[in-house]
Write a structure and sequence with these properties.
By secondary structure, the chain is an alpha/beta fold. The protein has one domain (about 5-235): 3-Layer(aba) Sandwich (Rossmann fold). About 40% of the residues lie in helices and about 15% in strands. It is built from eight helices and seven strands. It has helices at about 15-25, 35-45, 60-70, 100-125, 145-165, 185-190, 195-200, 210-220; strands spanning about 5, 30-35, 50-55, 80, 130-135, 170-180, 230-235. Strands 3-2-1-4-5-6-7 form a seven-stranded parallel beta sheet, sandwiched between helices. Helix 1 packs across helix 8. The chain is globular, with a radius of gyration of 18 Å. The structure holds NADPH dihydro-nicotinamide-adenine-dinucleotide phosphate and 2-hydroxyethylsulfonic acid (8X3). NADPH dihydro-nicotinamide-adenine-dinucleotide phosphate binds near residues 14, 34, 38, 57 and 136. NADPH dihydro-nicotinamide-adenine-dinucleotide phosphate (NDP) binds near residues 55, 85 and 181.
Length: about 250
């Protein structure tokens, strides 16, 4: 029987590439996101059975209902890819909009929690499953303006490890994939539709591509069950660590 991968945020970027990658490997997919027309066009490109769900991961009841209403041929889910997420704003903590912070917490933390909690009982009952969470280098490496976004991704990293602690005897694997600078719609969302500002992030640099992340997700999810890949951190070849900040003249 074909295996099934459930991918959140499949309407763009990493999620879309990941859906295509699992499909290319012969998997069925459950693709979700808020933009239905994007799901329709992705579904038309997929070659194996796919079930699309217009879903806002911030809505716990809707997440539970969607998982309960999966057609029998798409349940249980073998692999859940918790990819839906966003950064909004790059202001310092003293100037950031609290609504932006709420949106990141509600999506990147609470949405990921809701999807995980909704899918896990099926996986446990089935005796098999893999949760792949999309974290970020921002969860480990601080940078100015990364404040709450980075903190949400630190949650993803620690939640992934704690899930593993809970699930180790149940044959459920968990991986946190943590990419760095990658060109998707991410920066356009972060800068609230300012295309010039978003384009400047990728100016004259060779970033990570969505397919690179899809590769990592599929690789982690297709390892033999005697191993668990805890974390994969990926930076662009053109990206590295900055020195610690030292401000001179402070008394
Ligand atoms: P995109 O903006 O291209 O894609 C984000 C996806 O998340 C979209 O499909 C969007 O779908 C979905 N999404 C956002 N909010 C919600 C919501 N409330 N409910 C359901 N789906 C939602 O960005 P990326 O592909 O880059 O981002 C994917 C993940 O990767 C995110 O978690 C991001 O934080 C992370 N990441 C990105 C990096 C980068 O540099 N690009 C690096 C490291 C991590 P829709 O709007 O249709 O709902
Ligand atoms: C996105 C990568 O470095 O812009 O998670 O925060 S970064």
């Amino acid at each position: 029987m074909a295996k099934t991968a459930f991918i959140t945020g499949a309407t763009s970027g990493f999620g879309r590439a990941t859906a295509k990658r699992f499909d290319a490997e012969g998997w069925q997919t459950v693709i979700s996101g808020r933009r239905g027309e994007r799901l329709d066009s992705l579904k038309a490109e997929l070659t194996n059975p796919s079930h699309s769900i217009v879903l806002d991961v911030r809505d716990s009841d809707a997440v539970n209902a969607a998982v309960k209403a999966l057609p029998a041929s798409f349940a249980p889910i073998d692999v859940l890819v918790n990819n839906a997420g966003l950064a909004v704003g790059l202001e310092g903590a003293d100037e950031a909009d609290i609504a932006d912070w709420d949106l990141m917490v509600d999506t990147n933390i609470k949405g990921l929690m809701y999807c995980t909690r909704a899918v896990l009982p099926q996986m446990v009952a089935n005796g098999y499953g893999h949760v792949v969470n999309i974290g970020s280098i921002a969860g480990a490496w601080p940078y100015p303006g990364g404040n709450v976004y980075g903190a949400t991704k630190a949650f993803v990293r620690q939640f992934s490890l704690n899930l593993r602690a809970d699930l180790v005897g149940k044959n459920i694997h968990v991986t946190d994939v943590e990419p760095g600078l990658a060109e998707t719609e991410f920066s356009e969302i972060r800068f609230k539709g300012d295309k010039d500002k978003a384009a400047a992030v990728y100016n004259d640099v060779d970033p990570i591509r969505p397919d690179d992340v899809a590769d990592a997700v599929f690789w982690a999810a297709s390892r033999p069950k005697n191993i668990n890949v805890n974390r994969i951190e990926i930076m662009a070849g053109a990206q590295a660590f900055s020195p610690l900040a030292v401000v001179r003249g402070l008394k």
